[in-house]
Amino acid sequence: MIIKRVLSGLMLAILIPIAGFSQKVTLKETATGIDFMLGNQRVLTYQTAVEPVPEGVKSDYAKSGFIHPLTSPSGQVLTRIQPKDHYHHYGIWGPWTRATIGGREVDFWNLADQKGRVDFDRVIAEKEAGGVAELTVRQKHIDLKAPENEKLAISEDLTIKVMPVDKGRFLVDYTSNFSTKLKDGILLDAYRYGGGLGFRATEVWGSDNSTVLTSEGKDRKAADGTEAKWVIIQGESGAPEGKSGLLIMSHNTNKAFPEPLRVWPEENYERKGNVFVEFTPIRHESWEILPNKRYTLKYRMIVFDGEMTAEEAESYWRAFVK
C-alpha cells in the first residue's frame, strides 16, 4: 500500500506543473505562427503561414500546419523541415499518407503527387492559465482531385498544450480530433507510413550520435514495425549536459494501441539528418472513417536535456494514461 501511494504521488507530480515554478508558458502570435514561450524562451512554434520552398524546388512542397522548431529546455533545436532527401517532412506533424475516397487513391503527405495535402485553416481557441498554455487550431485535409463540393475530406481540430514538469523539462500534449462529412466516408489504407504523429529530427543527429529506445526494449535496428507505448529519441547536442531529446507517448485509447512504429533504419540516407520516427496506427490494418463521427488520437511528449531512462519514461506514460 505504501509503495502504491508513493508511485501515485510520483505520477501526480509528473502530470501537473511544478509548484512554485518560476517560468510560465505563454503564447505569442507572429506573422508566421504562434510561439509557446517558456519564460523568455521560445520552445515550440506552430506554423500558420505557408513555408516557402527553396529556389528550384517544386512549389507543391510548400506547406503550413506543423510544429517547428521544437527546442529543448536549453534551446537546442530538435526538429527539421524540408530536408533535401524529403522536402515534405515538417518537424512534428500528422503525416497521413494513403487513403481511399470514392475508389480513388488520395495521398495527403507526398505533396508533389498533387493528390492531397493538409494545411492550417484557422485558430479556434487560445488559453493561458496556471502557467500552462494551450492552442486549438483547425487543419483541413484536402482531396485535390475531388469534385469541388467534396474537396474537404477531413476536418481536424488539433490541440497543443505546453507546461513545465520536473527536472527542468517540459511537456507537450498533441491531441487530434477529426471527422469527415463525406457520405461514403474514407478508408485510411494500411501502410508503413501514415497517421498519428511524425517526428523528423535535427540534422545534427545520425546513427553514430543518437539513439532510439521503445517501451518494449527495441533499439533503432529492431524498432521499425513493432508496437510501443512510448519511444525515446535522444542524441548529442550543445546543451550543458551534452545531450537532448524527447519522449513521445501514445495514449492507451488510441487506435491500434500499443501503436505500431515507423522508424527509419540506421542505413537510411546520409549519416546526418536521417532520424525519422512515427506512430502509425494504420501500419497493420486499415481504418474506416465514417461520416459525421468524431475520432481522437492523443500523444504526449516530454522534452529534455541530458538523458532519460526507460524507468522514467514508463512513469511518465503511466501518468499520461492515468
Q: Could you please describe the fold and organization of this structure?
A:
It holds the Pfam family DUF6807. InterPro entries: DUF6807 (IPR029475). This is PmoA family protein. The protein is mostly beta strands. The chain has a single domain (2-321), classed as Beta-galactosidase, Chain A, domain 5. The protein is 9% helix and 42% strand. The chain contains three helices and 21 strands. The chain has helices spanning 2-15, 220-223, 310-321; strands at 25-29, 33-38, 41-47, 66-70, 92-93, 98-101, 104-107, 116-129, 132-143, 152-164, 170-179, 186-188, 197-200, 210-214, 227-228, 230-236, 243-250, 259-263, 276-279, 287-289, 295-305. The protein has an eight-stranded antiparallel β-sheet, with helices on one face. Strand 9 and strand 10 form a beta hairpin. Helix 1 crosses helix 3 (310-321). The longest helix is centred in the N-terminal third of the chain and has 14 residues, at 2-15. The chain is globular and about 55 Å long.
